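so im writing up the methods section and need the MSP domain-containing protein record in one place, dumping it here so i stop losing it
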Amino acid sequence: MAIAARQKPNSDARLFTLCPFWSSNHSVQRSSKTVSSVARSLLPPRRKLRLDPSNYLYFPYEPGKQVRSAVRLKNTSKSHVAFKFQTTAPKSCYMRPPGGILAPGESLIATVFKFVEQPENNEKMSDQKNKVKFKIMSLKVKEGVDYVPELFEEQKDLVTVERIWRVVFIDPERQSPALEKLKRQLAEADAAVEARKKPPAEAGHRVVAEGRVVAEGLVIDEWKERREKYLARQQVQAVDSV
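--- predicted struct ---
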């Protein structure tokens, strides 16, 4: 019996050696949390906006003219979301509005303006589509925060790139589903702009708060002035070339 009593601790030791989980449960939990956090960092960011169109921005192909496209944004998250447009060609393109804040479930249609360059060296319509790209970014914000572009610089680590659009030109003289959809969206965008110009008592539900509209308007005016100067230079160069 004495021999059996002396052997029991050894059997217990072997049991813990074979089953280290029971002796290091806390460290395993810590390890699993670390692995899960690393896995989350490797996953693509969860998008906060639903965009239509989702991959391309369609513009009528009218060389020498300023044309328009439109994109619908909807906040599909449970928090307020700031958004901001960017383009690789700020001298010839601008967006209205260039940024803003959407409450959960809110949506709006933004208008994108682009000057279509005259083709060079027998350049085709399809050759110009890869020259310009547009990007939209999103940022989760607290309710009541006013939109300013600096939000995206102050919290750049939390910014999500929602989409990068490529430009696709369509023939304005040829009927197509893309052209019909673009016309509908532009009509909605124009109606939304007119609604925002009305006094609050007449406008009813406003997609963007009055303070944000004013802030966006200042940016729009700045872009519009820069755009007009660019178009004026283009016209002077065209006259000189003749």
